[in-house]
């Protein structure tokens, strides 16, 4: 069985952390700088944007007797699905052939980052942290240029001549990149180093059992399907949240005599409470709950803490996460993490679906109907 190991370096106008890899990969501004790869103990090679698909990749995708691996293979699979396959015509690597070394690390209760996992296993070769800074720089646009901006026409011409330096989008925006040749050479070296580390990890980590490998593949199918969200309703809800936030901030300013103008001003709230004779060490959820249980709390401080408590409800944060992470078809993907807990339990990611409010029987049928149901039972 031959093992193909690969790692991509990409760039995009989309914030990967906010949007998740699926919305990131499908955006037209997203592209690949390079892919480093190797087969078993062979030399690590580099594929550069514009070159033909490597024969080793084609073999891993189409021939029997191959597996393909990556650290956090979900990222590689999304990039391949939306860019390498759809845009460049590469063959798709079947999920049954993929092996995720990050999933193996999770299953062994090891760190889920490449650099920390390598350190935990005592690998002689480590991730290039200096190169990481350059990678992050090259992953985001250098400039956004509109037709009215100075240098727009020059940048648009550059996008046609050298896609490594600029990209023209369908809406007329031109993005320029940190794509100078010397930068790209350093990025290639960084990418090669990552593949060396990933190959080293694949030799140290225990492979998933056949059952767990099938479960990981199921996790990929679940994450690729995603959760449909109601985009218009979310936008309307965010508008309501903005109005309510303004109302609560106004009440906070009134209650504190203008000392605290917004519920989010934690330091000012603590300072104002101290001036009222109430010593608060923090204003996190648990601290506010503890403080509100005091019998001798001044009414104004109690009102201010209740406002802080109301404004800090975490459920509203999910609305922005849903909007940021929604793909073009209105689905949020990548919300489940295989083996996220040491027990093997799945964890939620980004919009945390495990923490969604759950309706009760009372919400559905009412108290009278519930009593009738229990009586009949």
Describe this protein's structure.
β4 (66-70), α3 and β5 form a beta-alpha-beta unit. The protein has 377 residues and is of the alpha+beta class. It folds into 3 domains: 2-139 and 180-226, Nucleotidyltransferase, domain 5, CATH 3.30.420; 143-176, no CATH class; 231-316, no CATH class. The chain is 50% helix and 13% strand. It starts with a strand and ends with a helix. The strands form 4 sheets. It has a 5-stranded mixed sheet, sandwiched between helices. Strands 6-8-7 form a 3-stranded antiparallel sheet, with helices on one face. The protein is built from 15 helices and 12 strands. It has helices at 16-26, 55-62, 73-85, 101-107, 114-120, 129-139, 152-161, 181-204, 210-225, 231-255, 266-275, 285-292, 299-311, 317-325, 361-376; strands at 2-11, 31-39, 45-48, 66-70, 98-100, 143-145, 166-168, 174-176, 227-228, 331-332, 336-337, 347-348. α5 (114-120) crosses α8 and α10 runs antiparallel to α14.
Summarize the structure.
This protein is α+β, with helices and mostly antiparallel strands. It has 15 helices and twelve strands.
* H/E series: EHEEHEHEHHHEHEEHHEHHHHHEEEH
Q: Which regions have little confidence, pLDDT < 50, spanning 5+ residues?
A: none
**In what range is the share of β-strand residues?**
5-15%
- Major sheet: arrangement of strands: 3-2-1-4-5
Number of helices: 15
CATH domain fold name of the largest domain: Nucleotidyltransferase, domain 5
Any idea how many domains?
3
Which class do the helix and strand fractions yield?
alpha+beta
Helix content: 40-55%
Which CATH first-tier class of the largest domain would you pick? Alpha Beta
Largest sheet: 5 strands, mixed
In angstroms, what separates the terminal alpha carbons? 59 Å
């Amino acid at each position: 069985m031959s093992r193909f190991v690969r790692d991509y370096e990409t760039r995009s106008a989309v914030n990967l952390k906010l949007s998740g890899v699926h919305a990131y990969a499908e955006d037209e501004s997203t592209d690949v700088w390079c892919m480093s790869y190797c087969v078993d103990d062979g030399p690590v090679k580099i594929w550069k944007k514009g070159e033909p698909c490597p024969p080793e990749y084609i073999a891993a995708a189409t021939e029997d007797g191959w597996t393909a691996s990556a650290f956090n293979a979900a990222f590689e699979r999304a990039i391949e699905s939306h860019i390498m396959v759809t845009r460049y015509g590469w063959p798709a690597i079947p999920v049954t052939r993929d092996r995720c070394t990050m999933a193996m690390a999770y299953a062994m209760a090891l760190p889920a980052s490449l650099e920390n996992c390598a350190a935990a296993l005592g690998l002689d070769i480590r991730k290039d942290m200096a190169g990481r800074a350059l990678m992050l720089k090259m992953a985001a646009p250098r400039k956004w240029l509109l037709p009215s901006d100075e240098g727009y026409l020059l940048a648009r011409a550059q996008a046609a001549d050298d896609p490594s330096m600029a990209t023209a989008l369908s809406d007329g925006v031109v993005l320029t990149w940190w794509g100078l040749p010397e930068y790209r050479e350093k990025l290639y070296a960084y990418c090669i180093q990552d593949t060396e580390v990933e190959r080293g990890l694949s030799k140290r980590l225990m492979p998933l059992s056949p059952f767990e490998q099938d479960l990981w593949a199921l996790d990929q199918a679940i994450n690729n399907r995603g959760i449909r969200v109601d985009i218009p309703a979310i936008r309307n809800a965010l508008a309501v949240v903005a109005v309510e936030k303004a109302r609560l901030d106004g009440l906070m300013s009134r209650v504190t005599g203008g000392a605290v103008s917004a519920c989010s001003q934690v330091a000012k709230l603590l300072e104002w409470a101290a001036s009222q004779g109430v010593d608060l060490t923090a204003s996190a959820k648990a601290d506010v709950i503890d403080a509100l249980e005091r019998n001798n709390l001044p009414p104004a401080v109690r009102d201010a803490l209740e406002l802080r408590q109301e404004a800090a409800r975490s459920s509203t944060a999910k609305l922005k996460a849903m909007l940021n992470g929604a793909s073009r078809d209105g689905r949020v993907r990548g919300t489940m993490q295989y083996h996220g807990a040491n027990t093997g339990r799945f964890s939620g990611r980004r919009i945390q679906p495990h923490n969604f409010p759950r309706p009760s029987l009372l919400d559905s049928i009412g108290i009278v109907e519930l009593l009738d149901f229990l009586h009949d039972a």
